[in-house]
Write a structure and sequence with these properties.
globular, alpha/beta, 216 residues, single chain, 42% helix, 7-stranded mixed β-sheet, Glutaredoxin
Length: 216
Amino acid sequence: MAKNKNNKWILAILFFGPLAFYLFLLTGTNNFAVLPVLTSNVNDLTNLSSENTVTLDDKISILCFFGNDLLNKKTNALNLNEKIYKHFYGYKNFQFVVVLPVGAEEKAKQLKKELGATTDVDKWFFVFGTDAQILEMFNSLQTDYKLNANFYTPDAFIIDREMNLRGRNDDEDQPNGILYGYNAESVAPIHKKMVDDVKVVLAEYRLALKKNKREI
């Protein structure tokens, strides 16, 4: 009987121990790791058209460039929807923003309809611009990535509430250690890296809100 009790305690420690440690990292003030700012003052979306008023200011945004060939790249949207959007949808001021060329409006509606079959998509936003406007927006991220001829990149970017690009400066898979965006063509980088990094940014703001409330 005593042996069974000991086994249950061991199993409980093995199960809850890592979870408690992770929650401590997210809620502790001394050991909290901040996701680095890689680019400050990313352009807002004011020059781009949309059915809604969309801004990066005071929002935590996942920013994507799906290009003219939108429907052939919808796997990216499905991967991000499943691994990121569904998990963080409930957080206030969290949103997805997809930048597309003018003329892709109907494709955007079709994609949003497909995503909406399993998800409440009211925080998915599509904005449209000319070639020059899209390039200007993308270049404001100041990455070493490129848009292809269709104004597409596989990478999704995390933009914080101050309109800064957040990412990693010590990523072991990057030659220079800098990870500006997360390749959405594959689930692996989203699951292994992006999920954790979005958690860090959200936890950072939760801590800031708690601190502000204590100081008032």
